[in-house]
Fold:
Amino acid sequence: MQSKPTKETMIAVMRRIHARDGHVSKRAIKEETGWDPNYWFDKGYSGACEEANVKRGAKVGVETNLRVADEDTAVRFAQATRDCGRIPSIKQFRALAQMGMQTITRGEKWDNAKQRLIRIYLDLPAQRRLGEPIDAILRGELARLNGDDGGLTATMQARSSGTGQAIKMPAAYVSHVGELRDRGEEEKRQLVAQFFHEVLGYRRSRVRSEHEHNDVRVHDRRGAPWLVVEVKARLDTQRDLRIARRQGFDYAHRHGMRYVVISDGDLYEIYDRYASQRLRYDEMRQGAFRISALRLRDSDLLSVLATEK
Structure:
């Protein structure tokens, strides 16, 4: 574009930006033309938008663009956490990220938006995340938002005995899960075995880890095989989930085991083979939870896993 655009050219550019983005920010005008609208319009940016008959951005210098991917917003939130050295307030995040409120929150309350962004961030591949120190801060904030204070305690009724039992998820274990996120199947298998005997309280002799089959077997109080966990290094895709589920069900069928769990050390997806006579996966699926994003309602699923301890 010419070095000194005319007023008519500025208006044409603003209308083109509006057709593309649904609004016109001051930053977009400067990026397209190289000139500040204050140079051409008596009322500056506001007057330029009025004269061009286009919708202005929410705030001068702040982008309000609903087309921004949530993954990108989540990474910016992690970057803001790194820059602040702690979880930023909404005001701090908007200033650092130069993003509008609607782009960040999608109409949600700030705490709900934070939960969404942190979960999205923690699900990103390792190469897109900012490292364990930032991941740990975000996991701690997610735990706080979920009602945890230093280690999630889920109080539930153990179905086998009918007595209330408290299951505490230690913060150190949650952090360890994050540290091993990108490790292989051997480390993940050890992590799952640790979950059953250290968190859920099973005797070590009843939690058996098999290297050959990449699984963890849990035996009931009578010593019979009761539950199998098919462990994979990653369960990022539907194909990963299908393969793990098929292998877990094949193993459970051969050994007469009731429960099948697939896990990557963080995600636990639970199936009850006795829940459906038609052997439909969707009818046997009991639910799923993540250690790094445990919710109070997940106590029912923890109760299932702790039934035979």
Remarks:
- Strands lie at 151-157, 164-170, 207-210, 215-219, 225-231, 259-263, 267-272, 285-290.
- DSSP finds 13 helices and eight strands in the chain.
